[in-house]
Amino acid sequence: MNRHLHPISRRSFLAGSAAAGSLVLLHPFSANAAANQAHLRIMETTDLHVHVFPYDYYADKPNDTMGLARTASIIDAIRAEATNAILVDNGDFLQGNPMGDYIAYERGMKDGDLHPVIKGMNTLGYDCSTLGNHEFNYGLDFLFKVLDGANFPFVCANLAKGRLASGGRDDELFLKPYVILDRTIRDGSGAEHPIRIGLIGFVPPQIMNWDAKHLAGKAMTRDIVKAAEAWVPQMKEEGAELIVALSHSGMGPAQYEENLENASLVLAGVDGIDAIVTGHSHLDFPGPKFDGVDGLDNAKGTIGGKPGVMGGFWGSHLGLIDLLLERDGNAWRIVGSTSEARPIFKRVERNTEPLVQSKPEVEDAVRADHEATLKYVRTAVGKTSAPLYSYFALVADDPSVQIVSQAQTWYITEMLKDGEYKDLPVLSAAAPFKAGGRGGPDYYTDVPAGDVAIKNVADLYLYPNTVQAVLITGADVKEWLEMSAGIFNQVEPGKADQPLLNASFPSYNFDVVDGVTYAIDLSQPPKYAPKGELINAGSNRIVDLKFNGAPIDPQQKFIVATNNYRGGGGGNFPGIGPDKVIFAAPDTNRDVIVRYIVEQGTINPSADANWHFKPLAGTSVLFETGPKAAAFAADVKGVSIEPAGDGQEGFALYRIAL
Q1: What DSSP state is assigned to residue 527?
Q2: Closest Cα to residue 246, out of 295, 197, 292, 211?
Q3: 409: part of which helix (H) or strand (E)?
Q4: Nearest-CA neighbor of 260 among 287, 226, 302?
Q5: What is the rounded distance in angstroms from the CA atom of residue 533 to the CA atom of residue 31?
Q6: What pLDDT sits at residue 568?
Q7: Which pTM does this prediction carry?
Q8: Residue 13's pLDDT is what?
Q9: Residue 198's pLDDT band (cuts 50, 70, 90)
């Protein structure tokens, strides 16, 4: 047996007394089960990403939408709604917020140390967990030191040491492929019976690309479905009466393809798998985002016809699969099921309200690590040789956008360096997020030159997006920029002090594409409306578009680093959507920026002025920005800016002579 595995003892998992003294509404399966029937509830957490406290370390403030401590507070009550229950985790617990980086990069893990996320999980009575792709971000030695501290087992059926064997059952695995829990289950009459529950785990094969520096030559992954086809029959041979797949994988296509990253839908089709818990995609199933998806039934909560769930991310939901089991001879079979992703918060207009409070035992277990993490995020992780500000991000190339693009380009180049796209040029698209507007005259990025703390990254990148790369042509690059240029009003040549910015165009859709040079002709009308509708087909605002100093080839292929919002079609940019995505990263844009700063030591975010307005003689425009912009106006490259008095509601007014 691998030393990182923990044996499962035979124990009861009856939940009837879990919430003694409180009024509990039983699930209908528990309330109505007959003498030969039993209700089993499978509870799932997934994609915790080290979010134990309900706290956003980047913003350095509490957050009601996250945290295992919050999720934990409903586990006891939810367990009590069912006569019988198990609790599993679906992976990606080890990396993803500054607490994870603090432990890995600053404190370290010595033999015998307990990782804070394991401390939190150990308080909750988990029955099993699988591994997610992020478990490998810090290397194998670190990972197994973490796993050693858990009082529950980990399983992974498709992660082998060294090379793959000729067949799945012959692979030398790092962890057990599965466990079989010997438990006692209570039926509708109160009688107790034995049951053998098999739990098998899977990780995306793409970890071999994403973490090649840690895994190359040490590990290999087998296709998820093929691994299941190898091991599930053995589980049946060993007496598993119910088999649950812990699939750290999204839904994906309905048709099998080898080494799918998102294989849960086809995995559900493997004979012998009875139910499936999923994750990786940071979504909740059943849920409206899966309406109309082939193979999924939101009403029944089934994946490929089998009970399934995906429990959100960062502790936002607890995934629930409820099974009504019926005794068939000496074995159990499923005769009914429901699924639910139960949230820990609700949205009220633009605000969030907690539905639960934190479980004190979980917070207490991790409090010292939380305090240490706060100190960590407030201290420098690198330096910037120039100030990072966004006061002029909508009118000129800007350092706060520049650094995001530098980090994205660095990351995507590294991720794709050994694959089929390694020889294609990498561009980057990034937009300013804090650029005044409805946020007010102080709503701008403003980080002085010198030390950069992790929490400053939230000033650079507001949203927890993940990095994506799209494959497009030079013609697509031009249309991407035409859409971005819709933020500007059309101006009349020779006329002074015309309003520059279209207030209905959000700044987060003003993408600057780094790696090319171009000019914007404001005398032309916008080609696209703010929501992406084509309104002036003959307009060409983007002029003198060049790559490597030569006019861009409309047919040339480019990789563009962006985020999952844009890659998924957000903003309705022409020609950009899920069909163009060639790489969906496991990392957030924020994490990539932090890694880039750590890697570089000192960053140089000075804007390179790769875009500018086309000169229009005798023409000037006006725009508003924050009053603190005055300190930086003289440093802006590629445009002549001068103060023009006071704007409205505390803003300052500036003039650009075109």
Answers
A1: S
A2: 197
A3: helix 399-415
A4: 226
A5: 54
A6: 82
A7: 0.74
A8: 53
A9: very high
- pLDDT for 143-175, tens place per residue? 999 999 999 999 999 999 999 999 999 999 999
What is the number of other CB atoms lying within 10 angstroms of the CB of residue 649?
8
Distances from the Cα of 207 to the Cα of 158, 418, 422, 490, 498, angstroms: 11, 14, 18, 48, 53
Q: Single out the residue of 430, 442, 438, 437 nearest to residue 389, CA to CA.
A: 442
User: Residue written as tokens 């959507």?
Assistant: 577
The pLDDT value given to residue 557: 98
Domain 379-614 is of which CATH architecture? Answer: Alpha-Beta Complex (3.90)
Buried/exposed 507-533: b ≥16 CB within 10 Å, e otherwise: bbbbbbbbbbbbbbbbebebbbbbebe
Q: Judge whether 559 and 513 are in contact, CB under 8 Å.
A: no
Mean pLDDT comparison of 306-320, 338-352, 566-580, highest-scoring range? 306-320
- In three-state secondary structure terms, 212 is helix
User: What does the pLDDT average to over 606-620?
Assistant: 94
Task: Give the residue ranges of DSSP H helices in 81-204.
Answer: 98-101, 116-122, 140-147
Q: Strands, DSSP E only, in 63-139? A: 84-89, 128-130
Length of the chain: 658
Distance of alpha carbon 338 from alpha carbon 220, whole angstroms: 36
Nearest-10 crossing angle of helices 68-80, 360-377: 170
Question: What is the average pLDDT across 450-476?
Answer: 88
Q: What are phi and psi of 135, to 5 degrees?
A: -65, -15
Element of type H or E holding 237: helix 224-237
In CATH, what number does 29-373 get?
Answer: 3.60.21.10
- For residue 179, give the H/E element and its range: strand 178-186
**427 by DSSP, 3-state: which?**
strand
Q: Is 370 helix (H, G, I), strand (E, B) or coil?
A: helix
Give, in order, the Cα–Cα distances in Å from 569 to each of 411, 547, 557, 587. Answer: 21, 25, 19, 19
- Domain map of the chain by residue range? 29-373, 379-614
The one-letter code for the residue type at 119 is: K
Query: Is the pLDDT confidence value at 1 over 70?
Result: no
CA 289, 562, 437 angle in degrees (round to 5)?
Answer: 85
